[in-house]
Amino acid sequence: MEKIRVASLFCGCGGMDLGLIGGFSYLGKEYKEHSFEIVYSVDNDPYCSQIYNENFKHKCTIKDVRDIDIASIPDFDLLIGGFPCQSFSISAQNPPRLGFKDERGMLFFEMVKILKERSPRFFIAENVKGLLSANKGKAFPMIMNEFRDAGYKVIYKLLNACDFGVPQKRERVIIVGFRDEKDYRNFHYPLHVKTSDRKVLGDVIMQEADEDEGLFFSERAVAGMLAVREKMNKGRAMSLDEPCNTISAHLAKVSLNSTDPVFMVGERYRRFSTREAARIQSFPDTFKLDVVSSIRQYKAIGNAVPPVMMWHIAKSLQNAIEKSEIVDFKELQSEYPQVIVNREKDIKKGNDLDYEKPVLISLVKNDNVDLFLDGSARIYYTGRKFPSTVALNKLYYFMPYLKKKGIRDLYFIKIARVGSKAEVHPDADANDLRLVFEIEKVQQLFDDYQPVTLKIWNTFTDTILNDLLLLRG
After folding, report:
1. Which residues are catalytic?
2. Taking a C-beta distance cutoff of 8 angstroms, is the pair 398, 412 a contact?
3. Is 439 exposed, middle or buried (0-12, 13-18, 19+ CB in 10 A)?
4. Of the candidates 292, 290, 229, 293, which has an alpha carbon nearest to the alpha carbon of residue 255?
5. H helix runs in 56-174, sequence order
6. What CA–CA distances, in Å, run from 10 to 14, 82, 192, 377, 471?
7. Alpha carbon distance 142, 124 (integer Å)
C-alpha cells in the first residue's frame, strides 16, 4: 500500500509518531515499519521539539497550534494528537455547549478546525482516562459530537498500555475518526498481546543506575514519609514483578509523600533514571534523550504516548486501510458475472504495441515460474488480496515478476474474470475466489530480466507501457 501521510499535533518528543511509523526494537522484539510517514509535526515546547528533531527525519515545527496556517500544511491523510483536556467546561447555554475554562481548552477546537478545513481520511486523538468523567461526564459526549460535526464517524476505547507489552499501567482514551464508511467498518481496536509477551518493571530496570546516588532519597525524606505512611498511604514502592504505575511529567520532582511510583534497592528508596523512565514508556534504547537537561527529559517522557501501544493501534489502522483497498471478489463477481474485460480479438504484437496502455506487474509463485520462463503460461491467478485501487476495467498488459530476477516478458490480458484455483486444482476450495487472467505472450520486452522495486502491496502496481520502456535506456 502507498504511504499514509500524517500530520502530528502536540507531538511532544514523539512517542505517538514513533509508534505510528514503527521500525524500532524494544526489549528484544522488533516492531516492524508501518506504511505511515510524518509530513508535518508541531509542538509549542522547544525542549520536547529538540528531542523530537534529534530522533526523526522529519523535523518538528515549534509553534502554538493556534498560529498554524492550516492551508500551508502539506497534504495529509491522517491527523493525530493528544489535545490538552484539563480545562474543559460546559457553557451555561440552552442547549449546553462545550466551552473552556482557560486558553488551553481552545486547543481541542484547533484540532477540530483543521479536520473541518482539510478533511483528512482519518484522525486519532489520545487523552487521559479522566476525559470520560470530566464535568460530571458531560464533556466527553460533547467532544465526540464536535468530531462528528466535523464530518467523521467516531469510535473510542479505553486502552491500558500494559495490555500491549508496555511495562506500565497507563490507561488512555483512544478516539479514532473515519471519513469513509468502509474504513469505519473495517477498523478494530488491537487485541491484547499474549501473557508471555507482557512486560513488568523488572524487565526495564538498569543495575548501573544503582550507582547514581542522586537517584536515591535522603534519610530525612524517608523518615518524613514513614512518619505519615499509615495515615496517608504514601511510600508505595513498585513491585519489579508487575507493570509500573503510571509515570507523569513531574518525574524529576518525585516525592515519597505522594503516589508517584518509586522502587526499592535493598532497604533504600530511589527514583527512576531518565533512561529507565523512557523504557517504562516503551521507548527503545536508541531513542536519544540527552540533548536536553534531565529535568526536561523527565517532563517529555512523562507526557509521551507509549510508542509500543501506539504501534499496535497503528497496525490495526493499517490493516483496516489494506482491507478497505482490497477487492471484494464476491461483490465483483456479482457485478461482473461473466468477465471484467474481454479483449481476445484486440491482441497486438511487435511494432503494433500500444505504448499508452497500462501494464500490471504481479509476482509469480515458485511453482509457476517454469511456465513463465519458457513463455508457455496461459493463465494467471492473483492472490487472495488484490487492491481495489487498480482500475480493473483498464487491465490490458501483464508482466510476471520472478523472484530474484525481475521482469522481462510482456503478456496480453485477453480475459480478466473472477474464478478460483479449483478450476485447475480439484482439491482447492471453489469458494476461494481470485482474479483470473487468461493471457498470451506478446514478446520479450527486455534482453534480460530487469529489477524493479516491488514492495508487498505494489506487486500489483499498474503503470504505462511507455514508462517501462524507459528501463531499456
Report:
1. 85
2. yes
3. buried
4. 229
5. 106-118, 139-149
6. 9, 6, 27, 55, 44
7. 17
Nearest CA to 409 out of 361, 365, 455 is that of: 361
pLDDT of 166 above 80:
yes
The confidence score (pLDDT) of residue 237 equals 86
The pLDDT score that the predictor gives to residue 91 is 47
Grid coordinates representing 432 are 476461494
pLDDT at residue 345 tops 80:
no
Cα separation of 44 and 80, whole Å? 16
Please give the C-alpha separations between residue 48 and each of 95, 117, 222, 352, 457, in angstroms, as whole numbers.
40, 27, 32, 61, 35
Helix, strand, coil abundance in the chain, percent, nearest 5: 35, 25, 40
Write the single-letter amino acid at 470: L
CA distance 278 to 76: 29
Coil, helix or strand for 364?
A: coil
Residue whose C-alpha is closest to residue 275's, from 265, 264, 286: 286
Closest CA to 239 of 318, 169, 326, 300: 169
Percent of the chain with pLDDT over 90: 63
Residue 95, preceding peptide bond in cis (omega within 30° of 0): yes
| Cell of residue 460, nine digits | 500489483
Cell of 415: 480475459
Dig out the grid coordinates for 104 from the structure.
488551553
Return the C-alpha cell found at 341: 474485460
A 10 A CB-CB count for 215 gives 19
Contact 296, 47 (CB under 8 A): yes
End-to-end CA distance of the chain: 28
**How would DSSP label each residue in 245-268?**
PPP-TTGGG--TTSS--BEEETTE
For range 321-325, the mean pLDDT: 86
User: What gap in Å lies between CA 100 and CA 89, rounded to an integer?
Assistant: 5
DSSP alpha helix (H) spans, 257-328: 274-280, 294-303, 307-324
CB contact at 8 A, 418 and 332: yes
Task: Give the Cα separation of 161 and 158 in Å (integer).
Answer: 10
Cβ neighbours, 10 Å, residue 209 = 16
Q: Is 175 left (phi over 0), alpha (psi -120 to 50) or beta?
A: beta
Rounded Cα distance, 154 and 123, in Å:
9
Q: Work out whether the CA dihedral 243, 245, 248, 253 comes out positive or negative.
A: negative
